[in-house]
Amino acid sequence: MTEATAPIRARAAGAGWLAKLEGRISWILLGLAGLLLPLLDDSYIGVIAQRAYIYWVLSAGLNLVVGYAGQIAIGWVSMLTLGAYTTAALAAGNVGTPWPPYLALLASGVIGAVFGVIVGLPALRLRTFYFAMTTLGFATIVTQVALAWKDVTGGGVGTPGPTFPWPFDPGWGFYYFCFVLAALATWMTANIGASRYGRALVAIRDAEVAAEACGISKPALLMMVFLLAGALGGIAGGLFASLQSYITPDAFTFEMSVLFFIGILIGGRGSILGPALGTLILTVLPEFAAPLVQWSTFLYAALLLLIVLVIPGGIADLLDYKNRRPVPQPELLGRVLGTQGGNTLITLSGIELHFGGVRAIDGLDLEIRAGEVHGLIGPNGSGKTTTLNVISGYYRPQAGALRIDGADLAFEQPHVRAQWRIARTFQTPRLVGAASVLENVMIGGTVHGHGTFAESMLSLPRHRLDERVLEEAAMLALSSVGLESLAKVRADRLQHSELRFVEIARALMLRPACLMLDEPAAGLSAEEIRRLGGLIKAISRGGTAVLLVEHHADLIFDICDRVTVLNLGKVLAAGTPAEIRSHREVVSAYLGA
Amino acid sequence: MFQSIVSYGLAVGAVYALIGITYNVMFSASRVFSFTAGMLGMLGGVLGALFINKLGMNAVLGFVLVLACGAVLGLVTEILTVRPVLKSIEQHLYVLSTLAFALMVQQVTAIEWGTEAQPFPPLVPVGEGWLDQKFWLPLLACAVTIGGLELLYRKTLIGRAFLAIAEDSYAARALGLPETRLRMASFALAGVIGTLAGFTGAQMLLAFFGNQSILNFYGFVPVALGGMGSNRGAVIGGLALGLFQQAANFLVGGIFAAVAVFAVFIVVLLLRPEGLAGAATARRV
Amino acid sequence: MPISAPEPLLQVGGLSAGYGKIVVLRDIAITIGAGEAVALLGPNGAGKTTLLRALSGLLPRSGQVRFAGREIASANPRETVALGMAHVVEGHRVFTQLSVLDNLLLAGYGVASAARARQVEEALSFFPEIAAKRNDRAVTLSGGQQQMLAVAQGLVGRPRLLMLDEPSAGLSPVLVDRVLAAVARLREGGTAVLLVEQLIEKALAVVDRVYALARGSIVLEARANEPDLANRLERAYFGEGAHAPLNA
């Protein structure tokens, strides 16, 4: 259990080791306690501890699904059931010749992974409720099958669990087996949590559209997580079968799901230590409060209701990052874009887009050039944001072409925009409120990493290099927008205007060839708009093509090199700001006369 | 065998359909899918057996009392788990708040009523085979509910207000419709329909606390098949599901029935998330 | 300055409103006299729709809002409607699955049932075209007819102040004239009107006074017949004259 349990990693050199130790010390204590527990030589306590470890093996994976990705997997007990029956049936020889127990355990991991992915499929495109219902339905089905498939599962009578041979034979051997697997699960999921994959998961949870614009592919990432969570659940099931020594469908009640789920919620979303402690406490507590055992599920459910209504972020939300908000500094312009010389050219030709009968864009031609700020203005419904959404790949026009440097850019694929270094911001800032400002900005550089999911899970060198590079780049980007002093503050503690600048910093992480800003001045004060104008201008002078959709006429006329006026989805006028200002038709269209 | 597949399948299907309608009635007024639908179905049976069997009440009185309990639980659901969540930014938390409430009720039932399935008293002492009340009662309840809802929506102003809120709650609010009160009314109505489903189906399903999760899932399948908010879709989907399940149980076996239903559910969700009869939804940017 | 009746019908002071953290309106002050028609102009994004929502209670707001002698800054839409404020929201959002008549009956939800049918007929009398289609579902109406229906919905409660949010959006010029003619008739009948409109010329023809909103604040107040209004509006929207260009 090495790295990064605290969600953010202290960067300051002086206090660094202390902060790291602070994050690790709980793990070290937990680990020591686990290692030394057998010295008590109390087999009752040993069994309770084994159960806690087994539950945590499952919950560690589930934590990535629930705590990080924010998917409401309420029936994950089904993975435990699957794993338990797979291991037991294979080891007992209910299917063909008996398998060696370790191999059977491995098989249950594979089965768990497969079904984790299947159950996760609806989460890829549907709202939360459907996935919750799918996991619940799967748990119902698995129990029904376990009851009905008598040859393999023994039906209601049950089937004996496997006994693992030396070195992890029943007793303290098996205890250490569970302990090591729990530690391994912790280490792997903590690595993921602190990697760009972990941040991407949180981004999908809290700012899905922005995550796509940063090049994060939700389906691919969620599949990996479901696979891992399913595998861990299956393995936990195999261990559970051995611990129980005899399993029946009754052993896997839906209430266990509630325990896993609530353990994670109590611990807080986006944390590893919190849910681990939560699971441990919920497993152990009933042992010391025997009269309450009957009511434990009721209390868990009541606790769940309370958490949802009062502190939706879990206990972790109550603990603020220590730094209070300092005074923002003026921006240090230009450094982040470095030396990239740009000559990118984005062209839209003959774009037509209708929604039903309404023509949102009606034959639009547009050129966005490197090193220029291109303003896009027009009355409501004239197609400004729609144009931006076409370029970012949210819409598929009925006609027309979109090219970058002469190459065709496919429509309706938002997450490939990042590979072309097309970045954007949103009308309403879309950030992860529960993550730090620095983490939010690092999300913008997700596609620049090289390590795979597995490399991150095992904390291999390439993963560590990725993290270092991303963090440095993010600090630089933050400095350029003048917010480096807020790096470790939770994003939801920031003011609205600061969020706008954080979004720009996140977009800069792509070192964008093209940056699209959707009403960046909305809600900003006059002074902030002036700073924003200077920043945008400096970005474009570094070689980036900037497309600016804005209502603030003053800002447009101050900083744009070229302005296009849209009306009813068509170009009404295009030219320099001076030309546009004196264009009679434009003035009347913009004013609506 | 054919007779028992059809009679049993239609009866179970009618219960699923009613639970599906329960989901829909709550959804229309609030855009919330509440996990209390299965809980209401479960309680319809348990409370019915409690009032009539254990406390020896008159069947009619027991029936009315069960529905009244359903209405009250519907109101509590709205006030305790839906209203606070709709006010917050993370509205999808209704998934957890309604689930938590349903689990609390289920646990109280398990402790106070017991975890064993218990028989439900026959109400009408006539009929055998096709005429056995356990077969026609759910179907009758389903028909009455559909007819009643149709009357409500077509003939009364409050019914049209339900439709208005379901179509465009923002415009409805701007017109001055009492959105909160209408939402409470629809949750109370859902409470009545859910317990009606459980009460009429309890001779088949027994008074059993475990019916909650089964009804939650199998009652939602018709909604997913028929399109959310569509009561007609829920009825067709529910009856089809009941028939399919019984046929598969008899002809191929329970394992296949369970797996097939789940597979169809996932496939429909993935390919036609708006339901087999529903309309496509808009993009979120 | 506004025509000062003993007490204006609507008096707003220090009003702020927005969406979550985003403050859209700051320190708004407007008044509307009984029976007065006022246009609310401004470039898009200025906060016109937000202001109407804040007045009718669809959005939380802070500040003072006095209407018909009552403080309504914390009233919900149901209460403001009951007091005689009708808000016809943007984009002719009628209930397409219900009949024209049902749409109007719902608009009279708070009206005593004895008077409801009469008031619905009254509202329909403004728009003979949709009165003829009273039993058709609203989905069968054209966009212009739906807008008429939306305005008629606003009239069912016999409001003292009718707020219309871009009733001309998406309508052909002929239909716009017909909708605005209804506004003129209402004013003659003594109903105050607050009209948000992009078609300035047409709006000016039917109102007494205008407010211009830009960047969330009132930047101009004028009588509708002032001679230099177009130029004053332009200056108010684009900011006063020259700015010091940045980095140039």
Could you characterize what this model shows?
- The complex is a heterotrimer of chains A (593), B (285) and C (248).
- With 593 residues, chain A is α/β, with parallel strands linked by helices.
- Chain A has helices at residues 13-36, 43-68, 77-92, 101-120, 128-148, 150-153, 172-193, 196-206, 208-213, 218-244, 254-267, 273-288, 296-310, 384-391, 437-443, 453-457, 461-481, 496-508, 526-541, 553-559, 577-581, 584-591, and strands at 159-160, 246-247, 345-355, 358-369, 373-377, 399-404, 407-408, 422-424, 514-518, 545-549, 562-567, 570-575.
- In chain A, helix 2 crosses helix 11 (254-267) and helix 11 (254-267) crosses helix 12 (273-288).
- Chain A starts with 12 loop residues before the first helix and ends with a helix.
- With 285 residues, chain B is mostly helical.
- Chain B has one domain: ABC transporter involved in vitamin B12 uptake, BtuC (Orthogonal Bundle), CATH 1.10.3470.
- Chain B is globular.
- The model of chain C is unreliable at 240-248 (pLDDT under 50).
- Chain C has 9 helices and 10 strands.
- Chain C is 35% helix and 25% strand.
- Chain C is α/β, with parallel strands linked by helices.
- In chain C, strands 6-7-8-3-9-10 form a 6-stranded mixed beta sheet, with helices on both faces. In chain C, strands 2-1-4-5 form a 4-stranded antiparallel beta sheet, with helices on one face.
- Chains A and C meet through helix 19, helix 20 and helix 22 of A and strand 2 and helix 9 of C.
Brief description of this entry?
Chain A has helices at 13-36, 43-68, 77-92, 101-120, 128-148, 150-153, 172-193, 196-206, 208-213, 218-244, 254-267, 273-288, 296-310, 384-391, 437-443, 453-457, 461-481, 496-508, 526-541, 553-559, 577-581, 584-591; strands at 159-160, 246-247, 345-355, 358-369, 373-377, 399-404, 407-408, 422-424, 514-518, 545-549, 562-567, 570-575. Chain A is an alpha/beta fold and 593 residues long.
